[in-house]
C-alpha cells in the first residue's frame, strides 16, 4: 500500500544559525499510528506544523496522499489533515457543539448554515468522544480533559484521513490520558484514520502506537517499528538520562532514574534485555 | 443539539429586533420641541397645496435624522463586532486601529484650511474625515502586515502608535487654530448629528447595508477565526482572504459612519457586548442583531441629545459616552473577575 504521508529530505530552520530539522525522511502507511518523540526543542512540534503546512520548508518535500503539500489549497488540505493543538480557549464563550460544528464551516450552505449531513457528522464525532452530554456547555467551563476531547471531536468532524496531535495529553491526569489514547486508537482501528501524535509520554505511546519517529535534538532521527525505535539504548542516548526498562506481559515500559532515585542501582542487576552503551 | 442556530430562528430574531427598531424610531420621531402627531401628519396629505406643519416636521426634520442615527448606529455596532472577532480582543472597538485619529486629523485639516466646496453634496469635513479614516486603517494594516506572524499584536501596536502620533498632530493643529474653528472641530470630534439631505442618506444607507451584508457572508468564518488563525486555517478557512474582506468592509462602514456624524464613541464597544451576553457569540446572529440594536441605541441616544437641553442640542457622542461608559465599566469588572480576557 502506498504511503499517505511521505517526507523526503526535509530541512527546516527558524534562523540560519540553528537548524531544527535536517534531511528528515519517513513514510506513514494509511491507518497506522505514528508517535513522534524526542527531547524538548528537537523539532517535534515544528515537524507537525510542517505536516499541516502551518510552516513551510525551504528544502525537502512533504507529500500528503500522493501530492506535494504545496499543491493543496487551504480548503482541500483541510479535507485531508486535521490538527489538534495544545489547549487553547477562544476569545468568546462558544459552546461545545458550536465548537465542533466549526469544523464543517467550509461545507456550509451559501447563506452560512450547516446541512443535515454536517449535523450527523458532528453528532457522531461527539458520541465518539463522549462529549455529547455536555454539548451545550461553554467551552470555558470545561476541565482540561473535557476540552481536549472537544477539540478531538472537532478534528474528527473534519472527516479527514489524517489526524495530527500535538501532545494531546500534556495537562491531563492518568485516567484522562488513557481515555484520550483509547479514543485515538478507536478512531484508527474503526475508521482507518492515520494518527500522528507528538508525545512526551513514551510509555503511553508505546502501548498505542504502531510506528515511531524519534528526533534526537541534533538533527538525527530514528524511525521504524515502535519496538525498534523505543529501545533502552535509544532512549538513554537521546534523552541523556539513565533509564530502567522492563517488560510486563506484552508491554514495554521505561522508567527514568534521576540522581536521587532509590533504585538507581537497579540498572546493573535489572532483567534488562537491551544492551547499554 | 437544540441550541444551534437555524435560519428560521435567525429570521425570527432579526424580525423581532426590526419591529422593535421601527417602534422606537416612530416613538422618537414624535418626541421633540414641537409636538407632532402622526395622525395629523398623514391625514392631511390628501389635500393638495396646503402646508401641513406636522408632515413637514416629521418627513423633513425628524425622519432624516432618525434614519441617519439608525444607519450610523448599525455601522458602528457591526464594525465593533468584526474588529473584536478579528483582533480576538473583546476590548476592541471600531476606532481601535486609528480610524478616530485619522478621521479627526482629516477634519481639522479641512476646518483650518477653510475649504469651501462640496463633493456630491458633502462638506470638506466629511470628505476629509472619510479619507483620513480609510487612509489610517490602510497604514495600520500595512504596518501590521510587515510585523509578520504575530499579526494581531502587530496590528494593535501599530494602531496605538498611529493613534498617538496623529493625536499629537491634532493637538498641534488645534493649538494654532482660531477659536471659532476649534468649536466646530470639537463638536465634530464629540459626534454630532445634523439633518442631512435625503440623497446623502440614500447613498449612506446603501453603502453601509452593502458593507454589513458582505460581513454577514463571512460571519461563519469569523466564528472559526475566534479560535485563532492557526486553528481556523487547519479547519480550511482562507485566513488572508477572510481578514482582508473583514477589515476592508468594517473599515469602510466605519469611515462612512464617521464622515456622516463624527466620532460617536461606545456604540461599537457596548452594543456587541450587550448582544453577545444575551444571544451568544455566534457571529451569524451577533452581527445582524448588533446592527439593529446599535441602530436602536443611537436613535434613542440622539433623541435624548435633541431634547435634553432644547432648543440647544448636545453632541450625541456625549450621550452615548455618559450611558455607555458606566455600562462598559460594569461589564469589564464582571468579566475580568470571571475570566482572563486578553490572551
Strand order, largest beta sheet of chain A: 6-7-8-3-9-10
Order of helices and strands of chain A: EEEHEEHEHHHEHEHEEHHEEH
Q: Provide the β-strand percentage band of chain A.
A: 25-35%
Q: Which value, in Å, is the CA radius of gyration of chain B? A: 21 Å
What is the number of E strands of chain B?
0
Q: State the secondary-structure class of chain B.
A: mainly alpha
Label the CATH architecture of the largest domain in chain A.
3-Layer(aba) Sandwich
- Report the biggest beta sheet of chain A as strand number plus sense, adding barrel if it closes: 6 strands, mixed
Which fold does the CATH topology of chain B refer to?
ABC transporter involved in vitamin B12 uptake, BtuC
Mean pLDDT over the full residue set of chain B: 84
Quaternary? heterodimer
Query: Got a strand count of chain A?
Result: 12
* CATH level-four homologous superfamily name of chain B: ABC transporter involved in vitamin B12 uptake, BtuC
| Parts with pLDDT < 50 across at least 5 consecutive residues of chain A | 268-277
Mean pLDDT over the full residue set of chain A:
87
Summarize the model shown.
With 277 residues, chain A is α/β, with parallel strands linked by helices. The C terminus of chain A is likely disordered.
Question: In words, what does this structure look like?
Answer:
The complex is a heterodimer of chains A (277) and B (343). With 277 residues, chain A is an alpha/beta fold. Chain A has helices at residues 44-51, 74-80, 96-101, 116-128, 144-157, 174-191, 202-208, 226-229, 232-239, 266-269, and strands at residues 5-15, 18-28, 33-37, 59-64, 67-68, 81-84, 162-166, 194-198, 211-215, 221-225, 243-248, 251-256. Chain A folds into two domains: 5-230, P-loop containing nucleotide triphosphate hydrolases (Rossmann fold), CATH 3.40.50.300; 240-277, no CATH class. Chain A has ten helices and twelve strands. A six-stranded mixed sheet of chain A has the order 6-7-8-3-9-10, with helices on both faces. A four-stranded antiparallel sheet of chain A has the order 2-1-4-5, covered by helices on one side. In chain A, strand 11 and strand 12 form a beta hairpin. Residues 268-277 of chain A have low confidence and may be disordered. The relative contact order of chain B is 0.16. Chain B is globular, with a radius of gyration of 21 Å. Chain B has helices at residues 7-30, 38-43, 53-86, 99-112, 124-147, 151-176, 179-189, 198-217, 219-225, 229-234, 239-261, 267-279, 283-307, 316-338. With 343 residues, chain B is mostly helical. Chain B has one domain (35-335): Orthogonal Bundle (ABC transporter involved in vitamin B12 uptake, BtuC), CATH 1.10.3470.10. The interface between A and B is large, with 40 and 39 residues.
Amino acid at each position: 500500500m502506498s504511503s499517505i504521508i511521505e517526507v523526503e529530505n526535509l530541512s527546516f530552520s527558524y534562523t540560519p544559525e540553528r537548524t531544527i530539522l535536517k534531511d528528515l525522511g519517513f513514510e506513514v502507511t494509511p491507518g497506522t499510528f505514528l508517535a513522534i518523540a524526542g527531547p524538548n526543542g528537537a523539532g517535534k512540534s515544528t515537524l507537525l506544523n510542517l505536516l499541516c503546512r502551518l510552516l513551510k520548508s525551504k528544502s525537502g518535500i512533504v507529500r500528503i496522499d500522493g501530492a506535494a503539500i504545496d499543491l493543496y489549497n487551504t480548503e482541500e488540505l483541510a479535507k485531508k489533515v486535521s490538527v489538534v493543538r495544545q489547549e487553547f480557549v477562544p476569545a468568546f464563550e462558544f459552546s461545545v457543539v458550536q465548537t465542533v460544528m466549526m469544523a464543517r464551516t467550509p461545507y456550509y450552505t451559501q447563506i452560512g448554515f450547516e446541512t443535515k449531513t454536517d449535523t450527523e457528522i458532528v453528532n457522531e464525532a461527539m458520541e465518539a468522544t463522549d462529549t455529547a452530554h455536555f454539548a451545550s456547555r461553554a467551552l470555558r467551563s470545561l476541565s482540561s480533559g473535557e476540552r481536549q476531547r472537544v477539540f478531538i471531536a472537532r478534528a474528527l468532524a473534519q472527516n479527514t484521513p489524517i489526524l495530527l496531535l500535538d501532545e494531546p495529553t500534556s495537562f491531563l491526569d492518568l485516567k484522562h490520558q488513557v481515555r484520550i489514547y483509547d479514543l485515538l486508537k478507536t478512531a484508527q482501528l474503526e475508521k482507518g484514520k492515520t494518527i500522528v501524535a507528538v508525545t512526551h509520554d513514551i510509555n503511553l505511546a508505546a502501548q498505542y502506537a504502531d510506528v515511531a519517529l524519534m528526533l534526537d535534538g541534533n538533527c538525527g532521527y530514528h524511525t521504524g517499528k515502535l519496538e525498534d525505535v523505543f529501545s533502552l539504548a535509544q532512549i538513554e542516548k537521546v534523552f541523556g538520562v539513565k533509564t530502567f526498562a522492563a517488560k510486563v506481559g506484552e508491554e514495554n515500559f521505561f522508567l527514568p532514574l534521576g540522581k536521587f532515585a532509590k533504585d538507581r542501582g537497579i540498572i546493573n542487576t535489572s532483567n534488562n534485555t537491551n544492551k547499554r552503551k | 443539539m437544540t441550541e444551534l442556530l437555524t435560519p428560521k430562528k435567525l429570521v425570527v430574531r432579526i424580525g423581532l429586533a426590526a419591529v422593535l427598531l421601527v417602534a422606537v424610531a416612530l416613538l422618537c420621531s414624535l418626541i421633540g420641541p414641537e409636538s407632532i402627531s402622526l395622525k395629523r401628519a398623514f391625514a392631511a396629505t390628501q389635500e393638495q397645496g396646503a402646508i401641513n406643519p406636522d408632515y413637514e416636521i416629521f418627513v423633513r426634520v425628524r425622519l432624516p435624522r432618525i434614519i441617519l442615527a439608525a444607519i450610523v448606529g448599525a455601522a458602528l455596532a457591526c464594525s465593533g463586532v468584526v474588529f473584536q472577532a478579528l483582533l480576538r480582543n473583546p476590548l476592541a472597538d471600531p476606532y481601535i486601529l486609528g480610524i478616530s485619529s485619522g478621521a479627526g486629523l482629516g477634519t481639522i485639516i479641512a476646518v483650518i484650511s477653510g475649504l469651501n466646496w462640496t463633493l456630491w453634496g458633502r462638506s470638506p469635513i466629511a470628505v476629509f474625515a472619510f479619507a483620513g479614516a480609510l487612509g489610517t486603517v490602510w497604514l495600520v494594516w500595512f504596518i501590521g502586515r510587515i510585523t509578520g506572524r504575530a499579526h494581531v499584536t502587530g496590528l494593535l501596536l501599530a494602531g496605538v502608535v498611529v493613534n498617538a502620533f496623529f493625536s499629537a498632530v491634532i493637538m498641534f493643529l488645534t493649538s494654532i487654530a482660531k477659536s471659532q474653528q476649534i468649536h466646530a472641530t470639537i463638536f465634530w470630534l464629540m459626534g454630532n448629528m445634523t439633518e442631512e439631505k435625503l440623497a446623502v442618506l440614500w447613498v449612506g444607507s446603501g453603502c453601509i447595508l452593502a458593507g454589513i451584508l458582505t460581513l454577514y457572508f463571512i460571519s461563519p468564518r469569523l466564528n472559526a477565526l475566534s479560535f485563532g488563525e492557526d486553528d481556523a486555517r487547519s479547519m480550511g478557512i482562507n485566513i488572508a482572504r477572510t481578514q482582508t474582506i473583514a477589515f476592508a468592509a468594517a473599515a469602510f462602514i466605519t469611515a462612512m459612519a464617521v464622515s456622516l456624524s463624527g466620532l460617536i464613541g461606545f456604540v461599537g464597544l457596548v452594543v456587541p457586548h450587550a448582544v453577545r451576553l444575551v444571544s451568544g457569540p455566534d457571529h451569524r446572529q451577533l452581527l445582524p442583531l448588533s446592527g439593529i440594536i446599535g441602530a436602536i441605541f443611537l436613535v434613542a441616544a440622539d433623541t435624548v441629545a435633541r431634547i435634553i437641553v432644547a432648543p440647544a442640542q448636545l453632541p450625541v457622542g456625549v450621550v452615548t459616552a455618559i450611558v455607555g461608559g458606566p455600562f462598559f465599566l460594569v461589564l469589564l469588572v464582571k468579566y475580568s473577575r470571571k475570566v482572563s480576557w486578553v490572551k
